[in-house]
Amino acid sequence: MSADTHFFDNVPAKLIACAVIVACLALGAIGLILPLVPGLLFLAIAAVVAAKFSPAFERMLRQNPTLSAYLDRTDGFVDLPLGKKLQVAALLCVKMVIDGIALLVSVVMRLVKLAERA
Questions:
Q1: Where are the alpha helices (DSSP H) in 6-81?
Q2: Which of 47, 84, 100, 115 makes the best surface tag, with the fewest CB within 10 Å?
Q3: Do residues 39 and 29 lie in contact, with contact meaning Cβ atoms separated by under 8 Å?
Q4: Which burial class, exposed, middle or buried, applies to 116 when counting CB atoms under 10 A from its CB (0-12, 13-18, 19+)?
Q5: What range defines the domain where residue 66 resides?
């Protein structure tokens, strides 16, 4: 976190971060309603950006092992060159999609097991 805090010291960076958070939250909410938009992905991106913006929020997210791993992967992101930033962002998106699908499958399997018992 310490490598990224200097990025959010200026006002334009804070405004951009807030705009990204609001946009991702809006897309995430839409994605929870419409199955074509990956809602959890955008909510996760909003959470990661908000965690870099707020140390208290980061401490709260770090209590979850999965979210803590995502935050660890984004440490030092601001200092990377643009090509590496795009590569890391793409890989994180792929990982989030895979984790989301795994979570969805586990929930569906639990529902199927509950339906079989009834």
A1: 11-33, 39-53, 55-61, 65-74
A2: 115
A3: yes
A4: exposed
A5: 2-117
**Packed helices 65-74 and 39-53: angle between N→C axes, nearest 10 degrees:** 70
Nearest to 50 by CA among 76, 25, 85: 25
CA 96 – CA 40 distance, rounded (Å): 8
Given pLDDT bands bounded at 50, 70 and 90, which one contains residue 3? very low
pLDDT of residue 1: 43
pLDDT at 73 over 50: yes
Furthest-apart CA atoms within the chain: distance in Å: 58
More confidently predicted of 8 and 49 = 49
The separation between the first and the last C-alpha atoms of the chain, rounded to the nearest angstrom, is 48
* Cα separation, 83 vs 87, whole angstroms: 6
DSSP H/E element including 100: helix 82-117
Total number of domains constituting the chain: 1
